[in-house]
Design a protein that fits this description.
Length: 318
């Protein structure tokens, strides 16, 4: 005799109202939301899903079937995804280049803010590349947190392994740039590199965006805190988690993530990270339940999330 179905938890009325307000006041563009969902939710499960399930997953966000199909086709054309027919359906998976882009971006999202810094800087001098390569180089360097100190001069605090060799190789500009590590020498006179931070990065604009993010999600997290994790509504948990990461991603990927020594004392980036961490830990079990019930791979059920998923935000319980 089959076991009786276990009823799903009832949706929280206040969370439902918050979701409705969020989707009405800040509707997400379909391609951008799909990138968030793929990087946050699908990539840890192997990165490949049947299109029909993705359509169902995005419907509560107000993204209809036509928009999903159009957006996925565009992402495939841009090299993020590739399609494979499976019977009368379509399976979409990340390309190797798409996986690299996701890994690069989402590594920054889930890692804690930078703390240690030895006062050294990484400086790229790029007056050699032709104009199209110079523009592409600037974009890639900015993506990695470099600020512009002058025409063809980019810098960032040297806090992690350098991304410049990979960028230079990908753009074929290694022979057209010079890369140095440097530190301030106050005894020689002149301004310090630290004093150029406001010129190189728009920290006031970023601060305003972080504060807006904190206002958006600071109240609804209390509704999830009040509920027992075991009785969170799976669909609400997934929608809330996705809107959270979508909003955070849009701010964080503009953030050079400077060391604390170079930031204003009231910098809100750390508070935004802490909110994301707490929200994610509260909702990830229920959100994963919704994901597994909605999406399918070519073999049927999605594979379980990777070990890297459980390392997000300093560690999630299984």
């Amino acid at each position: 005799m089959p076991l009786p179905a276990v009823p799903l938890p009832a949706p929280d009325v206040e969370v439902r109202r918050w979701i409705r307000r969020e989707l009405a006041s800040a509707p997400a563009r379909a391609p951008s939301l799909i990138i968030t969902v793929w990087g946050d939710a699908i990539a840890p499960h192997g990165g490949a899903v049947m299109l029909a399930g993705l359509i169902d997953l995005l419907a509560p966000f107000g993204i209809n079937e036509r928009l999903v199909r159009t957006s996925v086709f565009r992402l495939a054309r841009e090299g993020w995804l590739k399609a494979k027919p499976v019977g009368r359906e379509s399976l979409y998976r990340l390309t190797s280049e798409g996986a690299r882009r996701f890994e690069q971006a989402y590594r920054r999202i889930y890692a804690p803010p930078v703390e240690a810094w030895d006062d050294s800087w990484e400086i790229v001098i790029a007056d050699g590349p032709a104009a199209p390569k110079r523009r592409a180089l600037k974009q890639e360097l900015q993506w990695e947190g470099f600020g512009t100190l002058g025409s063809g001069v980019f810098a960032r605090p040297a806090t992690t392994d350098s991304a410049v060799p990979r960028i230079a190789a990908a753009l074929d500009v290694a022979d057209d740039i010079a890369v140095v590590r440097a530190s301030d020498a106050p005894k020689l006179g002149g301004r310090t590199l630290a004093s150029l931070v406001p010129q190189a990065w728009d920290l006031s604009g970023l601060s305003a965006q972080y504060r807006q993010f904190l206002r958006r999600f600071g109240k609804v997290i209390d509704r999830f805190r009040l509920a027992d994790k075991a009785i969170l509504d799976p669909a609400q948990a997934f929608i809330g988690r996705t809107l959270l990461i979508h909003g955070y991603r849009r701010v964080l990927l503009r953030d050079p993530q400077l060391p604390a020594a170079l930031l204003p004392l009231d910098w809100p980036g750390a508070a935004a990270y802490a909110l994301c961490r707490d929200f994610y830990r509260l909702t990830h079990r229920a959100a994963e339940q919704h994901l597994m019930a909605t999406l399918r791979s070519a073999q049927g059920s999605l594979p379980p999330p990777s070990a890297a998923f459980y390392a997000r935000f300093g560690g999630l319980s299984g």
